[in-house]
Amino acid sequence: MALVCVEDYEKEAFRNIPKNALEFYRSGAGSEFSLTLNIDAFKRWRILPRFLRDVGEVNTDCNVLGYKLSTPIGVAPTGMQRTVHDDGEIGNARAVGKVGGIFILSTVSTTSLEEVAEAAPNTTKWFQLYIYKDQSLTESLVRRAENVGYKAIVLTADVPCFGARRADARNKFKLPPHLGLLNFQEDGSSNVKNMQGFSGINEYVTAQFDPTITWTDVDWLVKFTKLPVVVKGVLTREDALLARDHGCRGIIVSNHGARQLDSVPATIEVLPTIVDAVGNDMTIMLDGGVRQGTDVFKALALGAKAVFMGRPLIWGLAVNGQKGAEHVLELVQRDLELTMKLSGCVNMSDITKDYVAHESQFSK
Ligand code: FNR
């Protein structure tokens, strides 16, 4: 069967990923209300196309946090990518490099940050940071990322503890024995493999991540690193203002793929409020439920400068390694270009809120 969209890749991946890993990647928190909402909320925005403009060539070149890119579509940090295919993080980093987008490497990766940097030198790479109880571990991760050329630190703010992932609790998902969290010493202390009990991942987070962090730690990070700091996981105007006031350069509006607190809004629902609050002061980006070009277009129209996809790249990897990841990115990129042509937008700066309307506007 020809695979022509992310949904096709998802269906194909569901057939070939082992059940407990599949459930780890697919699932959301609680009753998965927000997981469904992330997808459905995009459908509540309509695109208002303009015609009879010269759309012979469209261009997705853009500038995000001062870095030149050929696409606003990037890869969100997802943990343990080699679980689904041995190409893992390197496959995804190289794939998004080919379309000229950003790769964000998770702290809990199954390939070390140095190996990814060496294998994908031409990709713009950012490093996603969890703050560990062991301060020296956190410091060394940041310095290592700086030393090998990562261009921003993405601090994930929404994991003071693990969300209620029922699927993982049922399946007791653990990292397969041949893989490890390779940003850490294999001495066992920081390794999820050694965690027993109801969900290995949950135990790891509880043991290692610092649940007491506050905006004071953000102040520390902004001072400690020479890289721009981006906060990932902001869902309110209030936290957006705090991120700005504490010196962060960007925000990823995210609900962690609906894996933390269930019943939070879809990210596209809160994007306009956050752009309204701080859009002139900081770079606002979004992830959660982005699956096709029209989703990317809507997020850009509502003020995001870039979007990231998480699960779609897992499905791409699972189906055909790096080639599958490349194809997923190409499909969404081509779909964005098509959306631009069919709506009369030639450049990124043409895509404004004039091109979208919320469905509530049609029911008045
Ligand atoms: C994630 N996400 C995530 N975020 C993060 O900051 N660090 C991490 O290690 C992970 N790990 C992770 C694993 C898996 C399996 C998923 C699905 C997600 C969240 C991720 O960066 C992103 O916010 C969402 O995946 C975006 O939503 P979509 O594109 O999956 O709908």
Automatic annotation (TrEMBL):
Keyword Oxidoreductase (UniProt): yes
Residue positions of the active site: H256
GO molecular function, one term: FMN binding
Annotated GO CC locations: peroxisomal matrix
PANTHER family in the cross-refs: 2-HYDROXYACID OXIDASE 2, S -2-HYDROXY-ACID OXIDASE-RELATED
PROSITE patterns for this protein: FMN_HYDROXY_ACID_DH_1, FMN_HYDROXY_ACID_DH_2
Catalytic activity: 2-hydroxyoctanoate + O2 = 2-oxooctanoate + H2O2; a (2S)-2-hydroxycarboxylate + O2 = a 2-oxocarboxylate + H2O2
InterPro entries: Aldolase_TIM (IPR013785), Alpha-hydoxy_acid_DH_FMN (IPR012133), FMN-dep_DH (IPR000262), FMN_HAD (IPR037396), FMN_hydac_DH_AS (IPR008259)
Keyword terms of this UniProt record: Flavoprotein, FMN, Oxidoreductase
Cofactor field: FMN
Chain ranges of the FMN hydroxy acid dehydrogenase domain: 1-361
Protein's name in the database: (S)-2-hydroxy-acid oxidase
Enzyme class: oxidoreductase
Annotated residues for binding of FMN: 77-79, 106, 128, 130, 156, 232, 254, 287-291, 310-311
